[in-house]
Design goal:
single chain; 179 residues; mainly alpha; two-stranded antiparallel ribbon; 6 helices; 4 strands; 57% helix; 8% strand
C-alpha cells in the first residue's frame, strides 16, 4: 500500500482508499434515502418488519460505534454475548425503531459523529492486516479479525441497510435513492 502525508493527514491509495470510498458511497446512499423526510415519515414502518428509516440510521450508527470501540479498545469493547439478558436484546431491537422523542436530525448528527470517529480510527491504522482478538461468541467462528475485516463488515452492513432503506422509502412515498 502506498501512502503519503499531507498536512498531518495520511492519504492512502490502493485497497485502503477503495474500501474507504465504498463506505462513503454506502453512507451517502443511506443519507440520500432519508433526505427531505419529516420525523414522522422517518419513524413510519412500510413493511411487515419493524424497520423504519430512522431506525436504520440508529442501527448503522450503533454498528459503527461498536466496531470503532473494538478498533480502539480491542475485544473488551464487544459485549459478552453469552451473558446478554432479554432486556439487552430488547435494547438491541430498539436500534431498528425510531422512538418517540427522537428526531431524524439528531440521529443523522449522531451518525456524522460516529462516521468521523470510525474514519479517524481506520485512517490511523498502520496496516489493514493488523489483527485484533475477538471475544468468545456464537457469532464469530474466528478468534481474530483484521482491521480490513472490520472495515469490510461496516461497509457491507451499511450497504445492506442502505438497500433496506431504499425499499422502505419507495414504499413510503415512491421515491428511490437509486436509479
Amino acid at each position: 500500500m502506498s501512502e503519503s502525508t499531507t498536512g498531518g493527514k495520511q492519504n492512502r491509495s490502493g485497497e485502503h482508499a477503495d474500501l474507504v470510498t465504498q463506505i462513503d458511497r454506502a453512507r451517502q446512499s443511506l443519507r440520500g434515502t432519508v433526505s427531505g423526510l419529516s420525523d414522522e415519515e422517518a419513524r413510519r414502518r412500510t413493511t411487515v418488519s419493524d424497520l423504519c428509516l430512522g431506525g436504520l440510521i440508529k442501527h448503522v450508527t450503533a454498528v459503527e460505534q461498536m466496531w470503532a470501540n473494538f478498533l480502539a479498545e480491542g475485544r473488551s469493547a464487544l459485549p459478552d454475548f453469552d451473558s446478554l439478558t432479554e432486556a439487552d436484546w430488547a435494547r438491541h431491537a430498539e436500534q431498528f425503531r425510531m422512538m418517540p422523542g427522537e428526531t431524524l436530525d439528531a440521529l443523522l448528527a449522531g451518525y456524522d459523529v460516529s462516521n468521523r470517529r470510525f474514519d479517524t480510527l481506520i485512517a490511523t491504522q498502520p496496516d489493514l492486516d493488523t489483527t485484533i482478538a475477538l471475544p468468545d461468541s456464537p457469532f464469530f467462528t474466528e478468534q481474530h479479525w483484521t482491521v480490513r475485516r472490520v472495515l469490510l463488515h461496516v461497509v457491507l452492513d451499511t450497504a445492506q441497510h442502505a438497500g433496506h432503506a431504499d425499499i422502505i422509502r419507495e414504499a413510503l412515498d415512491g421515491k428511490r435513492s437509486t436509479g
